[in-house]
Amino acid sequence: MPQAPSFALKYLAGLRLVLLAWLAGGLLAAAAAPTAPAAAGGLDTVILKQALTAESDSLVFPVSVPSWPVTLPDDWAETRPGHLGPVWYRTAFDAPGLRDSGALLGLMIERVCSNAEVYLNGQLLHVAGRMREPITHNCQHPQLVALPATLLRDRDNLLDIKVAGHPLERVASWQRAGGLSALQVGPYDRIAQLHATEYAIDVSLPQAVSATLALLGGMLLLLGVVNARERHLAYFGALSLGWAAVTARLWWRNVPLPNYDAELLVVSCMPLVTLAAVQFVLRYSGTRSRSVTAALYAQCAVVPATLLIGGANRLHTLATLWYALLLLEVAAAVGWLLWNAWHTRRQRMLAAGIALVGAAVLAALEIAQQRGPLPTVWQLISHMAIPIVFVATGLRLTSQHGRALQVAEEGRETLAQKVKEATAEIERNFAQLAELRVEQVTERERKRIAADLHDDLGAKLLTIVHTSDNERISTLAREALEEMRLSVRGLTGKAVRLIDALGDWRAEVVSRLGQAGMEGEWSSPTDDIPQMLSARAYVQTTRILREAVSNIIKHSGASQCKVRCTIAEGDFQFVIQDNGKGIPLELDGRLDRGHGMSSMKHRAKQLQGQCLVESGPGYGTVIRLTLPLEPHSSS
After folding, report:
1. What DSSP state is assigned to residue 248?
2. CA distance 527 to 504
3. Based on CB atoms within 10 Å of each CB, which residue in 58, 127, 146, 509 is the most buried?
4. How far is residue 250 from each of residues 216, 272, 497, 536, measured CA to CA in Å?
5. Where are the alpha helices (DSSP H) in 453-579?
């Protein structure tokens, strides 16, 4: 999962490169196409601008129907409004000496709408497609026809062209109304070069741009559908796909529908394109409006309904009105985007708004072209500029989406690290709480046990001490009572000041030695000692001292015992020395086997200290007890 954003970034970057390479290839193909020179050896390239025209569906040029001269290009919207049916054109040119030389001439028809058949001196040379419904759409496809020398005459070669087209009233755009451009005749190689240039500009380049736009739109549509927060990408993808579908009429020749159905379908797509454009602009600016959305969807049904009601003869007028209204809707949405960007100071919205303003201006140019012919350069701009703006905007959106993915990935990694740290902190706190809970429960249980011992066992032992007539029993009860009190102090867990502990120990040791008839000498620091002893350390040290004094009283035979306490380097040390007979040689090496010595050393070890015993016959015994001491400790 952590690799998904990185893969998406690489995919978007690779796709942008593919799209740019694809589009650049189409542009280079158009730019690299050679242009024909004005003349060449043999016969100059001539442009035929005068022709006779006749309206007829005959198989050859009709000589029995009225004909009249026209100037090419001939636009049916101006010269024969409302005419429905084929139109013949006849023109003538000279080709002196070419029949014997075998030279091949070429004819280029820059524009014929919608389709044509070409005859030379009565012989059919070229059929560009279907001449009856559904008629092949060749309005944007320049035609190249070879004129073989065997059919040529030195003078008055008759060139007849039968054109099948539609009146302006029955098409949505002037570009698809019937008509014939001027004719160019010349050496085939030169005419072919000229045709290649026109074909690259009129067909290859729109195909490359439409394909690029469709690919980009599909990708953005998928990204917008997958990412709910990036819904504006889906609408822009739908806009790109819709415009690619609409502009496909520029190069899609054989539409399997009658002209009226095809035109109706193209115009009906425009409210869908408008819906996608307006919704993209609104979503991109962070605006949502249910009423606007409902109106846009309703418009998608109203537009084809009005076209059906108006009929075929009003198609052009209704389409032009709808195009103007749809353009105003898009312009209003773009104006809202710019206003919002200006007041919120969001630069990315401002840049997109400016690009969309350019697209709206170009769309207005496209609508203007629906009403009449424009210069060739403006036609090219209107056909190509909008898709190029869409491609550039789409690439910009993919770049923004890629950066957003990168920022999201970095944020996800940061969040994951913070979650990890927070989890570790929670685990530590939980462990501390658990330990604290155990300590609290243990402390309560210790206090309960201590209270039970003090109230029950202590009371009974005290009763025995005061009521027993047997001195031995009374002494044992008193010792048990002292031991019980010591255990209770350890259970309560109250820390003891070291200076107070030294006082207690001194009183007890000196008293016991005196009762046993021994001289006791105690030496300890008299200054104020700030250290504290934990209850456990106090209890265990007390028991070690009691055991040491008991051993001296019972086994040493000494008359004197010295106890010296020192504090140095974080430790406090007891040195207990007697002048007794010492430990016999037979016990040497077995000091730890006795219960008393073993318990003393074990208790010292529990306190992270040590208890050493030094003895020899006639030299007495020295016990060195060393315990660690933490300054100012209250544990």
Report:
1. G
2. 16
3. 509
4. 19, 19, 101, 97
5. 458-467, 471-492, 498-515, 535-551
Given the structure tokens 């014929």, which residue do they identify? Answer: 112
What is the token pair recorded at 127? 């059929």
Distance of CA 402 to the CA centre of its chain: 7
498: which 2 tokens?
């070291």
- Per the CB < 8 A criterion, the answer to whether 40 and 190 are in contact is yes
Question: Using CA atoms in the order 348, 27, 330, 340, what is the torsion angle rounded to 10 degrees?
Answer: 10
Q: What residues form DSSP beta bridges with 436?
A: none
What is the DSSP code string of 115-138?
Answer: EEEEEETTEEEEE-S-SSSSPP--
The type of residue at 295 is A
Say if residues 26 and 204 touch (Cβ distance below 8 Å). yes
Nearest to 488 by CA among 452, 439, 440: 452
CB within 8 Å of 482: residues ≥ 6 apart: none
Q: Crossing angle, helix 376-452 and helix 347-371, to 10 degrees?
A: 150
Is the pTM for the entire model greater than 0.85? no
DSSP 113: E
> Mapping DSSP to helix (H, G, I), strand (E, B) and coil, where does residue 496 land?
strand
Domains, the chain, in order of start with CATH, read 4-33+203-414 (1.20.1070), 50-181 (2.60.120.260), 494-628 (3.30.565.10)
pLDDT digits (tens, 9 = 90+) for 434-476: 888 777 776 676 666 656 555 556 566 666 766 766 666 766 6
The mean-pLDDT minimum among 40-44, 149-153, 199-203, 468-472 falls in 40-44
Alpha helices by DSSP H, listed for 347-375, are 347-371
Q: Cα–Cα distance between 307 and 317 in angstroms, integer?
A: 10
264 C-beta neighbours (distance < 10 Å), count: 20
Are the CB atoms for 93 and 46 separated by under 8 Å? yes
Residue 422's CB is within 10 A of a number of other CB atoms, namely 10
Q: Tokens 């009105």 correspond to what residue? A: 321
Report pLDDT digits (tens) over 231-285.
888 998 898 898 888 878 777 888 888 989 999 998 999 999 999 989 988 888 8
DSSP 158-207: EEEEEEE---GGGSSSGGGS-EE--EEEEEHHHHHHHHHHHHIIIIIHHH
Query: What is the Cα–Cα distance from 72 to 208, expressed in whole angstroms?
Result: 31
User: How far is it, in rounded angstroms, from Cα 502 to Cα 531?
Assistant: 12
